[in-house]
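Lab notebook, bench 4. Continuing the backlog of folding jobs that were queued last week. Each job is logged with the same field layout so the records can be merged later without manual cleanup. Today's entry covers ABC transporter permease, a 437-residue chain. Filled in by technician R.K.

JOB TYPE: sequence-to-structure
TARGET: ABC transporter permease
LENGTH: 437
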Amino acid sequence: MFAYYLQLGLRSLRKNPLLTALMVMAIGCGVAASMTTYSVFRATSNNPIPHKSSQLFVPQIDNWGPEDAAQNKGEPPSAMSYTDAINLMRDHRGKRQTVLYPVDLSVVPQDPGMLPFRQNSYAWYADTFAMFDIPFLYGGGWTAGDDEAHAAVAVIGRELNEKMFHGANSVGREINLNGRSYRITGVIDTWKPEPTFFDPVNTNGFDDASEVFIPFTRAVELKIGSNGNNNCNKDPGPGWDSWIHSECVWLQYWTELPSTADAEAYRQYLNGYSAEQQRAGRFHWAPNVRLRNVTEWLDYQKVVPQEAKVSLLVSVGFLLICLVNTVGLLLAKFMKRAPEIGVRRALGASRKEIYMQFLIEAGAIGLAGGVLGLLLTGLGMLGVTLVFEPDIAKLATLDTSLVLLTLLVSVLSTVVAAFYPTWRAAQVQPAWQLKSN
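JOB STATUS: finished
OUTPUT FIELD FOLLOWS
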């Protein structure tokens, strides 16, 4: 019966091509607008490490005091000072932990015909690779012993390995960074979490993939400055040592806490640590700490752009308007066929069969609207840069899941919109139609 009803529906659509085209265009435009903005919202609100997001935490410690916290609605600074970071690393209360910051490194090629070039680079601890489940193409990360020894070792990304070593296994070879030689311990396979959860403070959640990683201890020993934010509540004084031992905040700290009990114990530890700093005379205020997991941290940092939320709401509203128009067009189309419905009912067709026929016809309109919506969505991807920043706009992609979702939304929304017109059509009284004709 499905094939029969579909045949009836398609035949009906061909009888009034202008009305059918209007409905298909309305559905297609509404679906395209909503799916284009949804693709951006989906990318920006994505959970970048879903299997561990509830186990990875960012601690925050208020080392500036209530006056500065009041300007930030009582929240501690989003970054950490060198003093606090090193103290937390020393106490080692988490399963794994790391301090990290973006460093300004230039790669110096061995080929004299190539000029030095910069790469997104980070300094962090050995625990980071296992903590963030970073995949390796060759080798692996350096060891905790390398951290302690301030070793001249590095991990590079797949793209840089292709550029420098033509994709060969470069583990054990040397790479020149800022004029110094580093031994490569591993090559990371493609790793570009979106959003960039491990450092949204410096990247706003979206950045190109990082290709160079060196030990934090090595970077500090060589006095390699931060390539990210550096916030100070007062003048730290001249020189490197004055800066890193000041209350300036410029470091991100992450720790892995596998269970809820571990997280609660760590939160108590942070309060105890702050109270200890207060007793030592460094802090002159009550402990003010926070502990947020990945999703909470991204939400706190407002990684999802406000324009993405607003655009999604506007586009969904536009889709609803298109559906309301479709309801009116379907109602006019179905009620115009009242004599046909009356004859079918008189010949024994039940209301259920009328429902089936007209809902299948609406589904066919929705499918056609979905196909048009896919074409318009593809065009919409090209215009996303007019609304969003380039780093965000490039995340909008028309992949298989979005194609299927577009078709599904189009068909389902059209079928839902057809319920009222179909109900009205099913109420047609056969006797009245037969008498009037």
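OBSERVATION: The chain has two domains: 2-45+305-436, 56-300.
SIGNED: R.K.
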